[in-house]
Amino acid sequence: MFKPADSCDVIQIDLARVRNLRAALVGADTVTGLADTFRALGDPTRVRILDVLSHGELCVCDLAAVLSLSQSAVSHQLRLLRSLRLVRARREGRMVFYALDDLHVVDLLKQGLKHVGEAPARPSARRPAMRSRSAR
Fold first, then answer.
1. Residue-level pLDDT, tens digit, the chain, 136 residues
2. Is residue 134 part of a domain?
3. What are the phi and psi torsion angles at 59 (to 5°)?
4. CA 26 to chain CA mean position, Å
């Protein structure tokens, strides 16, 4: 019988630990919100917009010029970023200026950039690679 390498040899569930961990898990609405935030950060155009706004607030015209995009494309992305509370708008007369919503967004960007800029871990420092089924 085929048995995956990552399965338990003995089935023994620590019910108290499972109960405690389930109680400590993040709620479904929070998980969905976080997944939506990461999904938004998964788009290069939106990351570029957030990067530009990390230097200060701008109107759509200036954002479009900096990013070499149409105002319509920038507005479309800003609408999504606003709905996720990553960006906020401030009206001044007929102009609307956009900025990052708060310092948490800056922290997310900095942490992501730090992670991307790190050198890959040495092979001995990583977990062993999973073997494919055909290699077993």
1. 566 667 767 788 999 999 999 999 999 999 999 999 999 999 999 999 999 999 999 999 999 999 999 999 999 999 999 999 999 999 999 999 999 998 899 999 999 989 998 878 766 555 555 444 444 4
2. no
3. -85, 170
4. 16
Residue 40 lies in a domain: yes
Q: Which long-range contacts (CB under 8 A, 24 or more apart) does 55-60 make?
A: 56/99, 57/90, 57/97, 57/98, 57/99, 58/97, 58/98, 59/95, 59/96, 59/97, 59/98, 60/96, 60/98
The dihedrals phi and psi of 41, each to the nearest 5 degrees, come to -75, -5
Domain count, the chain: 1
Domain, as residue range, for 42: 15-112
Residue 126 lies in a domain: no
Alpha-carbon gap, residue 30 to 24, rounded angstroms: 13
